[in-house]
Amino acid sequence: MEGESKVKLHGMWASTYSKRVELALKLKGIPYEYIEEDLRNKSQLLLKYNPVHKKIPVLVHNGKPIAESYIILEYIDETWKNAPKLFPEDPYERARIRFWASFIQQQLFESMSRIVTSHGEAQEQAVKDAFEKLRVFEEGMKEYLPGGASFANGENLGLLDILMVTTFGPHKAHEEVFGIKLMDPERYPLLFSWITALNEHPLMKEIQPPYDKLVELLQHFKPTNQATGTESH
């Protein structure tokens, strides 16, 4: 237990990437110390622990730093083998999970970032691209979750649940600020019901950013066209 208590997480309250790691730690029941980072004035510890990217999140376990959220999630699942498992044991199922996890990270999240950081015609195109990628994902999840299960990992949250809820959980705040309804229940009924159920999970409620504070932060993205709050991996 002594080793398990020596876990620290350098993160940022509104970062999707930080929230991924926070949720995984809570799911596994791992005690940890949270260190909030000011991304405009990064701590010397953060720069020491992640000298390559100089970004959050960074997990420090017994003095050893691990950077980048997806790598951290794998490390957590491999180090703390208790349930729930974030990745399936079966190699084929593990590969399928990794495929869709990559789609969320590289396709969906990238599309959302372009919407936030673009204007005019570029933003309109980014919205079209996001809708198309969400349609592809909706169809893919109909096959992956044929029963329309709330959670991809059965009763417990797994990797896809973590990525989905931390990416799309705050969708109402984004709708309010940017006026774009990505998580539309008519267009994407499975994804909408999935996110709705995930947002009601007790652990997700614990780590959700305050709605008003998140809206205030997102407002700064519109006039400045800068994404300082999402500098992370």
Multimerization status: single chain
What is the CATH topology classification name of the largest domain? Glutathione S-transferase Yfyf (Class Pi), Chain A, domain 2
The secondary structure category is alpha+beta
Major sheet characteristics: 4 strands, mixed
Query: Any idea of the CATH class of the largest domain?
Result: Mainly Alpha
Q: What Rg do the Cα atoms give?
A: 17 Å
What's the number of extended β-strand segments? 4
- What is the mean predicted local confidence, pLDDT? 89
Helical residues, percent: 55-70%
- Tally the structural domains: 2
Q: Per DSSP, what share of the residues sits in E-state strands of 2 or more residues? A: 5-15%
Distance between the termini: 29 Å
Number of helical regions = 12
Strand order of the largest sheet: 2-1-3-4
Question: Can you summarize this structure?
Answer:
Helices cover 58% and strands 7% of the residues. The protein is an alpha+beta fold and 233 residues long. Strands 2-1-3-4 form a 4-stranded mixed sheet.
Note the main attributes of this structure.
12 helices, globular, 4-stranded mixed beta sheet, Glutathione S-transferase Yfyf (Class Pi), Chain A, domain 2, disordered C terminus, 233 residues, single chain, Glutaredoxin, 2 domains, alpha+beta
